[in-house]
Amino acid sequence: MTPTRTRGLAAAAALLLCAAAQAEAPSPAPALNTDPYLWLEDVSSERALDWVRQWNDLTTSRLGALPGFQQTSKAIREIVDSRERIPFVEKQGKYVYNFWKDAGHPRGVLRRTTLERYKSSAPKWDTVLDVDRLARDEKENWVWHGMNCLKPKAERCLFSLTRGGGDAHVVREFDTGRLQFVSGGFALPEAKSDVNWVSRDRLLVATDFGPGSLTSSGYPRIVKEWKRGTPLQAASVVFEGQPADISASGYADEYPGVNREFILQSTSFFTNDMYYRHAGKLVKLDKPNSATAFTFRDQLLIRLRADWNTGGKTYLQGSLLAIGFDGFMAGKRDFNVLYEPDATRSLQSVTATKSAIVLNEMVNVRSQVHEWRMQDGKWERRTVSTPPYASVSISPVDYLESDSYFMVLNDFLTPTSLHLGQVGTDLRQPLKSQPAFFDASGLKVEQQFATARDGTRIPYFAVMRKDVKFDGNNPTLLYGYGGFEISMRPTYNATVGRAWLEKGGVYVLSNIRGGGEFGPRWHEAALKEKRQVSYDDFITVAEDLIARKVTSPQHLGIMGGSLGGMLVSVAALQRPELFNAVVSQVPLADMKRYHLMLAGASWIDEYGDPDRPDEWAYISRYSPYHLLDKNRSYPPVFFTSSTRDDRVHPAHARKMVARMQEQGHQVLYWENMDGGHGGAVNGEQQAKLYGMVYSFLWDRLK
């Protein structure tokens, strides 16, 4: 049965885009129970898919007819298919590997070269796996999902492929010498697996072993040791977690001469227990369950998410501690403090090279880099010189054998560049540089601070023309996220540049609480019952932009994805008078049922448990699906999602659209029927999606 078509949506959409061509749309479904749109949770039912196709036809017709759509889509396609993009690499054995997509390889090709050849301006690449060809040969919708190689030589790798771009993937063993899959080698069917090498003939495997083997979040809870030449069913159980856990996994240290195996039990999204597998037994590490731990040769490093009182001392939330592994297991607690945050500083990432730990911190949302090395039994720190306003990312070249590392630099207006750094020196060898995909000569960047209701200063960046007039008439796009301790950093976004900035628009990136810009405290300020803080911060930034006359409600639009999709939905529902366009991508929306759909249960630590009345009391106040009010007027909303997203269920967006349509609000919807959580898997899909997004925004806000 498919939904009948009525004039209801056509009338609502006509309010949104009067100049667009007419098209029919699906009507609301009849009530099945207290939630009339539960049927949209059946992802691939013909009824639901027919509803999706009708919406896609309508939205493509309307947004595709806008004056700027063709030009914007073409510009985005040129960017994503450009051969001048940086081919980022990872070193495996004697080669560096790159996964590359372009117009001739829309699904992508895994290729490799040597590091020395890579340093040249036009390196010669050897094809390892052509995913387009594999998809044609096997008649499967394969999307590349990654590789895991056996150190140090990487003669064997585990390749992961997903159907349509979801998180669930198949695993196959690949011979990098013969450039072919290993006949009779290690292979796993489609699942959200975690699999790691112990030796050439042994793996630690966490996967779907059958009924009862997954957590309530849909991830593996059982870890087994799997030996070559034996069926997966014969693998021996190493660890078994609880159904209420998030997941379990196992891995082995790869350092030469070190024989250590670990089990990681993720008891919630932000807590874990770690076990050392030694002499046939599992020994639990005595660390806070909110802390993460990892080894660096003979050292154990512990990163704290909360204050820790141990050994007669208090170590602060956000710190990084180091201690000899054997000493720690023997009961010693004389830690070296490699990092301690303050009100403006937070640790963003930790990278290991052969002999050093490289720390990337943010100071007021700007990057700084430090190296720590053990010298004569003592840790010594050196600060690395970097451009003052650049966003910096660090990754090792080969942490087993080299002190070299890759450094990526960019900012809002400076194209991304890749450099080869070396521990102990500020000299860096430029390797690759991305071309300027948009004209930034007339642009500037400002960092401003909006004052929240409680007096907290909320940073945000605004990218605009140097000659901008603060008269309230500038088309302005405000972006935000605000969750899971993820930081929003200044980065070069060619799509924003071509589709928005070059037209004269203002782009604003907010650093609201819930993110990681100032470490765990910034994140915890918006957890669970405090979630409204992140929405208030976002609204505060919007109000500040209006007060400073950067823009006005008529010209202000907002956009976000995933948790950020929920952020902009809530902001628009709570303060509709502030905005004139909303783009909500792969969002959460039905917070009464989010924990029952796909990976949703894994986020209870972030949002709360809607099955508990005390927690639903605060969740209900920001659940977009439940905030909708037929008696209020909202700005037009463009929702996007993906049928193949197996992380955030597409029903969140679907149900929001259905209810908004029912209530007569202005709404459009487009669901990519591939794409996973990223929403698109190739250049054509990206160009279409973002062509519609930015055409919609410009039409509303100009």
From TrEMBL:
The name of this protein is: Prolyl oligopeptidase family serine peptidase
Could you list this entry's UniProt keywords, alphabetically sorted: Hydrolase, Protease, Serine protease, Signal
What GO terms are given for molecular function? oligopeptidase activity; serine-type endopeptidase activity
The source's domain of life comes to: Bacteria
The answer to whether UniProt assigns keyword Iron-sulfur to this entry is no
Q: Which Pfam families match?
A: Peptidase_S9 (PF00326), Peptidase_S9_N (PF02897)
> What taxonomic ancestry is recorded?
Bacteria, Pseudomonadati, Pseudomonadota, Betaproteobacteria, Burkholderiales
* Cited SUPFAM superfamilies: alpha/beta-Hydrolases, Peptidase/esterase 'gauge' domain
Q: In what residue span(s) does the Peptidase S9 prolyl oligopeptidase catalytic domain sit?
A: 500-701
Region forming the signal peptide:
1-23
Q: Name one GO cellular component term.
A: cytosol
One biological-process term from Gene Ontology?
Answer: proteolysis
Please list the residue ranges annotated as the Peptidase S9A N-terminal domain.
34-433
